[in-house]
Amino acid sequence: TNFLINDSFPLWAVLLLCSFGVSLLVYLTSRPEEPPIYHNFLSDAILGLTILAWGNSLGDLSMARHGYPGIGISACFGGPLLNLLMGLGLPYTILLVDEPEDKGVELVYNRMVTLLYTTISISLVSSMK
């Protein structure tokens, strides 16, 4: 299904033009020697909370729109959980098995961790039946 703006202009074209404009702006205002002034706004955590999370959930939205809302909701939580377990659990398990005398992995705790934990907790509690 094509989404149209004012029944004439496709939504994908608007998104493509906006993305191209932002990409051009970033290209023109960036230099390889130093980060741009807006670097903190486009940090990894912010991208993970917004753009990457939305992109990861597009398939789940598609399943829900095609009449399978239960599968879509389950995939919203199951996909990232599997990704975390496989992406972080396996490498750290291998690390601990290979080097058992090591003291483990040092974790860094800061305000962003608190924000992320609070956000995911609110999301999970609010979506419970």
TrEMBL record:
<dbReference type="Pfam" id="PF01699">
    <property type="entry name" value="Na_Ca_ex"/>
</dbReference>
<dbReference type="InterPro" id="IPR051359">
    <property type="entry name" value="CaCA_antiporter"/>
</dbReference>
<dbReference type="GO" id="GO:0006874">
    <property type="term" value="P:intracellular calcium ion homeostasis"/>
</dbReference>
<keyword id="KW-0406">Ion transport</keyword>
<dbReference type="GO" id="GO:0016020">
    <property type="term" value="C:membrane"/>
</dbReference>
<dbReference type="InterPro" id="IPR004837">
    <property type="entry name" value="NaCa_Exmemb"/>
</dbReference>
<keyword id="KW-0812">Transmembrane</keyword>
<keyword id="KW-0106">Calcium</keyword>
<feature type="transmembrane region" description="Helical">
    <location>
        <begin position="41"/>
        <end position="59"/>
    </location>
</feature>
<feature type="transmembrane region" description="Helical">
    <location>
        <begin position="108"/>
        <end position="128"/>
    </location>
</feature>
<dbReference type="GO" id="GO:0005432">
    <property type="term" value="F:calcium:sodium antiporter activity"/>
</dbReference>
<keyword id="KW-0813">Transport</keyword>
<feature type="domain" description="Sodium/calcium exchanger membrane region">
    <location>
        <begin position="40"/>
        <end position="125"/>
    </location>
</feature>
<keyword id="KW-0109">Calcium transport</keyword>
<feature type="transmembrane region" description="Helical">
    <location>
        <begin position="12"/>
        <end position="29"/>
    </location>
</feature>
<feature type="transmembrane region" description="Helical">
    <location>
        <begin position="71"/>
        <end position="96"/>
    </location>
</feature>
<keyword id="KW-0472">Membrane</keyword>
<protein>
    <recommendedName>
        <fullName>Sodium/calcium exchanger membrane region domain-containing protein</fullName>
    </recommendedName>
</protein>
<keyword id="KW-0050">Antiport</keyword>
<dbReference type="InterPro" id="IPR044880">
    <property type="entry name" value="NCX_ion-bd_dom_sf"/>
</dbReference>
<keyword id="KW-1133">Transmembrane helix</keyword>
